[in-house]
Design goal:
Structural class: mainly beta
Distance between the termini: 38 Å
CATH topology: Methylamine Dehydrogenase, Chain H
CATH architecture: 7 Propeller
Number of helices: 3
CATH class: Mainly Beta
Number of strands: 35
Number of domains: 1
CATH superfamily: YVTN repeat-like/Quinoprotein amine dehydrogenase
Helix content: under 10%
Shape: globular
Largest sheet: 5 strands, antiparallel
Strand content: 35-45%
Amino acid sequence: MTMLLDRRHFLAAGLATAGAAVITPDRALAGAAPPAWALGVRDVEANVPEEVMTLVHGRAPAGFAGRLYRNGPAKFRRGASAAGHWFDGDGLMRKFAVEGGAARLTARFADTPKRRLESRLGAMVQPGFGTRPGPGARLENADDVNSANTAVMMAGGELLALWEGGSPLRMDPDSLATRGFRTFRDDLRYMPFQAHPRAEPGGAIWNLGVVGAQAIAWKLAADGSLAKAELLTLPRRSYFHDFTATARHLIIVLQPWMNERFALPLATTLAWRPDQGTQVLVIDKDDFSRRRTFELPAFSFFHLGDAWEESDGTIRFDGAFASDPTFGQRAAAGLLRGEDIASPQPVLTQVVLRPTGRAELVRSGVEAEFPASDKRRSGRARSATIHVTHYRGPFAHGVGIWDWARGREAAFDFGDHQLVEEFLFAPRGDGERDGWLIGTTLNLARRATELHLIDAAQVAAGPVASWRASLPLPITFHGCFV
């Protein structure tokens, strides 16, 4: 049954027991000679003024134009202190604008209360996913610790920087100047708004916000205004960073990575319970009391692809599934110390939910992350999943498209000197492969960030155009193409 919203109770559950223990994380990367990939978690000290990127390969397709916004952490260390986890650095919004065959880059930090406080103190003190509170930490509401560092979306003409535990942060789509947190309704101030909203073809946007076994389901109209916000009770307190949706249903995957108590940092509260398996909760968008639960073997995940429903009621979606959450629990924290802690690589896997109640896993066998597809096809059947791949060390070195209908992959390996970030689909025509993959890499040899365009129908041929910036920017998480 849908519950009435109780903002005070919902927020208190996540902040009241944040914890008083103070542990200063390691300040610097471990060892005198950090590994080459550590450039991907370096600090950026200031905003990046707009610059014209250098065309280093090919040329842009005639008429191609658009903006790629990307968000990710870029400030991890202050004074003798450091963030305790890769997920907790200050958000730096990047804008890559392509027009007339030229590409321009600018980047600007999200001007959050967290960043302002820590800049004034000269120390990383605010808690997060894996960072403990330090001296002078302020914990009055969720947005005090909001780093606005995870994803980005456009809604009603507004550019929103997203973080899974608090409000979206409004940023100017041209200058990237911060405009303040977006409050959809006064009684919903500080409520969590996760980093992976799902848009319908008509423009409506769904999202969730989660604390323990409670979730708020958000629905925004095409103009970005609030259409609905209702509270859900979940069958268990699973941590999940992403959800997916069909035209008619919200789909919540409840992995057995369980939130066993309320405290910060969040990572200290999560326990892996594989004996409990994974549950998939399917909820009717029009009536949240209408729901079904499917059972699957245990797996861990961060990211899912778009879902669709077939004529007989079968639901399909894919995701990047690992055998356990070692990466989020320990390995991502080790990156800031220059450590490559071994963790299971995620494998691109399709989930099939039958109307009979049976659930199946179809594994591609391809190590992959950041599944993406043509957003115009949200809720519709598809065969292609864009992903990063070719993991050597903690980061990907390639990009590919997996074809579920044919059971094969087309991929391009950028080489050991390139760290590959998420690639997105930029449409050219109506077909599922009729368009471009647009994405970024960090060129370790040149110590520079690069922007690439790849023909989605000829991925193995590599970029048709590549531009290089004058500086290296650390690895991002998610972006959107406009």
